[in-house]
Protein backbone atom coordinates (compact mmCIF):
# COMPACT_ATOMS: atom_id res chain seq x y z
CA UNK A 1 0.00 0.00 0.00
CA UNK A 2 1.37 3.42 -0.95
CA UNK A 3 1.79 5.81 1.99
CA UNK A 4 -0.08 8.74 0.42
CA UNK A 5 -1.56 11.23 2.87
CA UNK A 6 -3.35 13.34 0.29
CA UNK A 7 -3.52 13.93 -3.45
CA UNK A 8 -4.80 16.99 -5.27
CA UNK A 9 -5.74 16.96 -8.96
CA UNK A 10 -6.15 20.48 -10.37
CA UNK A 11 -7.92 21.02 -13.69
CA UNK A 12 -5.85 23.98 -14.89
CA UNK A 13 -2.34 25.38 -14.57
CA UNK A 14 -3.74 28.43 -12.76
CA UNK A 15 -5.37 26.17 -10.18
CA UNK A 16 -2.20 24.08 -9.86
CA UNK A 17 0.13 27.02 -9.13
CA UNK A 18 -2.41 28.46 -6.67
CA UNK A 19 -2.53 25.17 -4.76
CA UNK A 20 1.26 24.97 -4.80
CA UNK A 21 1.53 28.56 -3.59
CA UNK A 22 -0.65 27.70 -0.61
CA UNK A 23 1.22 24.49 0.17
CA UNK A 24 4.65 24.18 -1.45
CA UNK A 25 5.45 20.97 0.42
CA UNK A 26 3.39 19.06 -2.11
CA UNK A 27 5.26 16.56 -4.28
CA UNK A 28 4.45 17.08 -7.95
CA UNK A 29 3.58 13.95 -9.90
CA UNK A 30 2.81 13.62 -13.60
CA UNK A 31 3.21 10.15 -15.09
CA UNK A 32 4.35 8.92 -11.69
CA UNK A 33 6.86 6.37 -12.94
CA UNK A 34 9.59 7.64 -10.59
CA UNK A 35 7.53 8.69 -7.57
CA UNK A 36 5.53 5.47 -7.43
CA UNK A 37 8.72 3.41 -7.32
CA UNK A 38 9.94 5.45 -4.34
CA UNK A 39 6.57 4.99 -2.64
CA UNK A 40 6.66 1.27 -3.35
CA UNK A 41 10.07 0.98 -1.68
CA UNK A 42 8.95 3.02 1.32
CA UNK A 43 11.29 5.92 0.56
CA UNK A 44 8.48 8.47 0.95
CA UNK A 45 6.23 8.61 4.01
CA UNK A 46 2.80 10.27 4.31
CA UNK A 47 3.45 12.11 1.09
CA UNK A 48 1.10 14.79 -0.22
CA UNK A 49 0.87 14.80 -4.00
CA UNK A 50 -0.08 17.36 -6.61
CA UNK A 51 -1.03 15.45 -9.76
CA UNK A 52 -0.71 17.10 -13.17
CA UNK A 53 -2.36 14.25 -15.06
CA UNK A 54 -5.53 16.27 -15.78
CA UNK A 55 -3.66 19.25 -17.22
CA UNK A 56 -4.25 18.51 -20.89
CA UNK A 57 -3.09 22.04 -21.73
CA UNK A 58 0.48 20.89 -20.99
CA UNK A 59 0.28 17.87 -23.30
CA UNK A 60 1.36 19.21 -26.70
CA UNK A 61 4.15 19.59 -29.26
CA UNK A 62 3.95 22.59 -31.56
CA UNK A 63 5.93 25.01 -33.70
CA UNK A 64 5.50 28.64 -32.71
CA UNK A 65 5.31 31.58 -35.11
CA UNK A 66 9.07 32.18 -34.83
CA UNK A 67 9.70 28.47 -35.60
CA UNK A 68 10.66 27.65 -32.03
CA UNK A 69 9.57 24.13 -31.08
CA UNK A 70 7.67 23.96 -27.80
CA UNK A 71 6.99 20.72 -25.92
CA UNK A 72 4.50 20.64 -23.07
CA UNK A 73 5.84 19.16 -19.85
CA UNK A 74 3.19 16.42 -19.52
CA UNK A 75 3.83 15.03 -23.02
CA UNK A 76 4.61 11.33 -22.69
CA UNK A 77 7.59 9.67 -24.36
CA UNK A 78 5.43 7.62 -26.72
CA UNK A 79 3.94 10.81 -28.17
CA UNK A 80 7.36 12.43 -28.43
CA UNK A 81 8.74 9.49 -30.39
CA UNK A 82 5.74 9.35 -32.74
CA UNK A 83 5.36 13.09 -33.32
CA UNK A 84 6.05 14.38 -36.84
CA UNK A 85 7.60 17.64 -35.63
CA UNK A 86 10.11 15.71 -33.54
CA UNK A 87 10.87 13.30 -36.38
CA UNK A 88 11.36 16.12 -38.88
CA UNK A 89 13.46 18.53 -36.81
CA UNK A 90 14.91 16.90 -33.66
CA UNK A 91 14.84 13.11 -34.20
CA UNK A 92 17.60 12.65 -31.62
CA UNK A 93 15.06 13.52 -28.92
CA UNK A 94 12.74 10.86 -30.35
CA UNK A 95 15.58 8.33 -30.22
CA UNK A 96 16.04 9.10 -26.54
CA UNK A 97 12.30 8.83 -25.93
CA UNK A 98 11.93 5.40 -27.51
CA UNK A 99 15.01 4.09 -25.66
CA UNK A 100 13.40 4.69 -22.27
CA UNK A 101 11.88 1.65 -20.58
CA UNK A 102 9.17 -0.46 -22.19
CA UNK A 103 5.93 0.58 -23.93
CA UNK A 104 3.98 0.82 -20.68
CA UNK A 105 6.55 3.16 -19.13
CA UNK A 106 6.79 5.31 -22.27
CA UNK A 107 2.99 5.66 -22.30
CA UNK A 108 3.07 7.06 -18.76
CA UNK A 109 6.43 8.79 -18.28
CA UNK A 110 6.52 12.46 -19.24
CA UNK A 111 9.38 14.60 -20.47
CA UNK A 112 8.76 17.08 -17.66
CA UNK A 113 9.03 14.40 -15.02
CA UNK A 114 12.15 12.98 -16.64
CA UNK A 115 13.85 16.39 -16.53
CA UNK A 116 12.65 17.47 -13.09
CA UNK A 117 13.70 14.19 -11.52
CA UNK A 118 17.28 15.39 -11.99
CA UNK A 119 18.63 11.92 -12.77
CA UNK A 120 21.95 11.98 -14.61
CA UNK A 121 20.68 8.95 -16.56
CA UNK A 122 17.59 10.75 -17.94
CA UNK A 123 17.28 9.68 -21.59
CA UNK A 124 15.90 13.06 -22.68
CA UNK A 125 18.70 15.11 -21.11
CA UNK A 126 21.60 14.68 -23.58
CA UNK A 127 19.45 15.69 -26.56
CA UNK A 128 17.98 18.66 -24.70
CA UNK A 129 21.51 19.76 -23.76
CA UNK A 130 22.76 19.35 -27.33
CA UNK A 131 19.89 21.44 -28.71
CA UNK A 132 20.29 24.19 -26.06
CA UNK A 133 16.79 23.68 -24.69
CA UNK A 134 15.21 26.24 -22.39
CA UNK A 135 12.66 25.50 -19.67
CA UNK A 136 9.61 27.62 -18.87
CA UNK A 137 8.76 27.52 -15.17
CA UNK A 138 5.64 29.04 -13.63
CA UNK A 139 4.66 29.92 -10.11
CA UNK A 140 1.75 31.86 -8.65
CA UNK A 141 3.89 35.02 -8.94
CA UNK A 142 4.92 34.63 -12.59
CA UNK A 143 7.22 32.84 -15.04
CA UNK A 144 10.93 32.48 -15.66
CA UNK A 145 13.01 30.84 -18.39
CA UNK A 146 16.00 28.67 -17.44
CA UNK A 147 18.54 27.23 -19.91
CA UNK A 148 18.79 23.47 -19.47
CA UNK A 149 22.48 23.69 -18.56
CA UNK A 150 21.58 25.92 -15.60
CA UNK A 151 18.75 23.64 -14.49
CA UNK A 152 20.78 20.61 -13.38
CA UNK A 153 22.65 21.44 -10.18
CA UNK A 154 23.77 18.00 -8.98
CA UNK A 155 22.65 14.36 -8.75
CA UNK A 156 18.88 14.49 -8.29
CA UNK A 157 19.01 18.26 -7.72
CA UNK A 158 17.48 20.77 -10.13
CA UNK A 159 16.87 24.52 -10.25
CA UNK A 160 13.14 24.51 -9.61
CA UNK A 161 11.60 26.26 -6.64
CA UNK A 162 9.08 24.59 -4.37
CA UNK A 163 6.27 26.76 -5.72
CA UNK A 164 7.08 26.22 -9.42
CA UNK A 165 5.81 23.90 -12.12
CA UNK A 166 7.64 23.11 -15.35
CA UNK A 167 5.27 24.27 -18.08
CA UNK A 168 7.15 23.55 -21.29
CA UNK A 169 10.48 23.10 -23.05
CA UNK A 170 11.67 25.33 -25.90
CA UNK A 171 14.15 24.55 -28.68
CA UNK A 172 14.83 27.54 -30.90
CA UNK A 173 15.15 27.39 -34.69
CA UNK A 174 18.81 28.46 -34.65
CA UNK A 175 19.60 25.40 -32.53
CA UNK A 176 17.95 22.77 -34.74
CA UNK A 177 18.06 24.25 -38.25
CA UNK A 178 20.72 22.96 -40.63
CA UNK A 179 22.12 20.30 -38.28
CA UNK A 180 21.80 16.55 -37.91
CA UNK A 181 21.65 14.83 -34.55
CA UNK A 182 21.66 11.36 -33.08
CA UNK A 183 21.29 9.85 -29.61
CA UNK A 184 23.09 6.65 -28.64
CA UNK A 185 22.31 4.84 -25.41
CA UNK A 186 24.44 2.10 -23.92
CA UNK A 187 23.05 -0.10 -21.18
CA UNK A 188 23.72 -3.54 -19.72
CA UNK A 189 20.65 -4.96 -21.39
CA UNK A 190 19.06 -4.12 -24.72
CA UNK A 191 15.67 -3.26 -23.28
CA UNK A 192 14.16 -1.51 -20.26
CA UNK A 193 17.46 -0.71 -18.53
CA UNK A 194 18.88 2.47 -17.06
CA UNK A 195 21.49 4.10 -19.24
CA UNK A 196 25.13 3.35 -18.46
CA UNK A 197 26.02 6.12 -20.89
CA UNK A 198 24.01 8.38 -23.16
CA UNK A 199 25.59 10.41 -25.96
CA UNK A 200 23.94 12.98 -28.21
CA UNK A 201 25.93 14.36 -31.14
CA UNK A 202 24.70 17.27 -33.28
CA UNK A 203 26.72 18.47 -36.27
CA UNK A 204 26.83 20.39 -39.52
CA UNK A 205 29.60 20.43 -42.13
CA UNK A 206 30.87 22.96 -44.64
CA UNK A 207 33.49 22.18 -47.29
CA UNK A 208 34.43 18.97 -45.46
CA UNK A 209 35.04 20.84 -42.20
CA UNK A 210 33.09 20.97 -38.95
CA UNK A 211 30.90 24.06 -39.03
CA UNK A 212 29.09 23.14 -35.83
CA UNK A 213 29.55 20.22 -33.44
CA UNK A 214 27.78 19.64 -30.14
CA UNK A 215 28.40 16.67 -27.87
CA UNK A 216 26.27 16.05 -24.78
CA UNK A 217 26.76 13.20 -22.31
CA UNK A 218 24.56 11.56 -19.71
CA UNK A 219 25.95 9.41 -16.86
CA UNK A 220 29.44 10.78 -17.47
CA UNK A 221 29.46 13.35 -14.65
CA UNK A 222 27.29 14.32 -11.64
CA UNK A 223 24.93 16.01 -14.12
CA UNK A 224 24.41 15.76 -17.89
CA UNK A 225 27.12 17.83 -19.60
CA UNK A 226 28.18 19.46 -22.83
CA UNK A 227 31.73 18.69 -23.97
CA UNK A 228 32.68 22.32 -24.63
CA UNK A 229 36.42 21.72 -25.10
CA UNK A 230 35.75 19.05 -27.71
CA UNK A 231 33.24 21.29 -29.48
CA UNK A 232 35.65 24.22 -29.55
CA UNK A 233 38.49 22.04 -30.81
CA UNK A 234 36.32 20.69 -33.65
CA UNK A 235 35.27 24.04 -35.16
CA UNK A 236 36.82 24.45 -38.59
CA UNK A 237 38.63 21.14 -38.28
CA UNK A 238 38.91 19.01 -41.39
CA UNK A 239 36.89 15.78 -41.47
CA UNK A 240 39.25 12.83 -40.97
CA UNK A 241 39.49 9.69 -38.89
CA UNK A 242 42.39 11.10 -36.89
CA UNK A 243 40.58 14.35 -36.11
CA UNK A 244 37.38 12.56 -35.11
CA UNK A 245 39.35 10.36 -32.70
CA UNK A 246 40.99 13.46 -31.24
CA UNK A 247 37.59 15.14 -30.79
CA UNK A 248 36.36 12.05 -28.95
CA UNK A 249 39.40 12.13 -26.69
CA UNK A 250 38.58 15.72 -25.77
CA UNK A 251 35.07 14.52 -24.90
CA UNK A 252 36.58 11.99 -22.48
CA UNK A 253 38.53 14.79 -20.79
CA UNK A 254 35.33 16.82 -20.36
CA UNK A 255 33.68 14.00 -18.42
CA UNK A 256 33.99 13.09 -14.75
CA UNK A 257 33.53 9.36 -15.14
CA UNK A 258 33.66 7.29 -11.96
CA UNK A 259 33.60 3.72 -10.76
CA UNK A 260 30.16 2.35 -9.89
CA UNK A 261 28.47 -1.02 -9.54
CA UNK A 262 27.40 -0.80 -13.19
CA UNK A 263 30.75 0.08 -14.76
CA UNK A 264 34.31 1.08 -13.95
CA UNK A 265 35.67 4.54 -14.69
CA UNK A 266 37.96 3.10 -17.36
CA UNK A 267 35.09 1.33 -19.10
CA UNK A 268 32.93 4.45 -19.06
CA UNK A 269 35.75 6.49 -20.58
CA UNK A 270 36.13 3.84 -23.27
CA UNK A 271 32.39 4.11 -23.99
CA UNK A 272 32.52 7.90 -24.15
CA UNK A 273 35.25 7.77 -26.77
CA UNK A 274 33.71 5.00 -28.86
CA UNK A 275 30.13 6.29 -28.78
CA UNK A 276 31.24 9.84 -29.54
CA UNK A 277 33.13 8.58 -32.59
CA UNK A 278 30.11 6.53 -33.67
CA UNK A 279 27.79 9.49 -33.16
CA UNK A 280 29.97 11.82 -35.23
CA UNK A 281 30.08 9.33 -38.10
CA UNK A 282 26.30 8.88 -37.95
CA UNK A 283 25.55 12.59 -38.30
CA UNK A 284 28.20 13.35 -40.91
CA UNK A 285 28.00 10.36 -43.27
What can you see in these coordinates?
This protein is of the alpha+beta class and 285 residues long. It has three domains: 4-50; 59-172, Uridine Diphospho-n-acetylenolpyruvylglucosamine Reductase, domain 3 (2-Layer Sandwich), CATH 3.30.465.10; 181-284, CO dehydrogenase flavoprotein, C-terminal domain (Enolase-like, domain 1). Helices cover 36% and strands 26% of the residues. The chain is built from 13 helices and 14 strands. The chain has helices at residues 13-22, 35-40, 77-82, 84-89, 91-98, 103-108, 111-116, 125-130, 148-151, 173-176, 228-234, 241-254, 265-284; strands spanning 4-8, 27-29, 47-51, 61-63, 69-72, 134-139, 142-147, 152-154, 157-158, 165-171, 180-186, 197-206, 209-218, 225-226. The strands form four sheets. It has a five-stranded antiparallel beta sheet. It has a four-stranded antiparallel beta sheet with strand order 11-12-13-14. A three-stranded parallel beta sheet has the order 1-3-2, with helices on one face. Helix 11 (228-234) packs antiparallel against helix 12 and helix 12 (241-254) packs across helix 13 (265-284). The longest helix is centred in the last third of the chain and has 20 residues, at 265-284. The model has no long low-confidence stretch (mean pLDDT 91).
Amino acid sequence: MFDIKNIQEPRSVEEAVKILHENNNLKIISGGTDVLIKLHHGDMKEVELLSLKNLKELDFIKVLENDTIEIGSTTCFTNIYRNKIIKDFIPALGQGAVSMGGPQIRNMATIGGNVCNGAVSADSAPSLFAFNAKLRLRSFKGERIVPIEEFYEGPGKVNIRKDEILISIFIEKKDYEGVRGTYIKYSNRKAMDISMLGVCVVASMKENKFKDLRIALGVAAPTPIRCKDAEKYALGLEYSEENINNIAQYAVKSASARDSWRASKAYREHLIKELTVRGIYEVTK
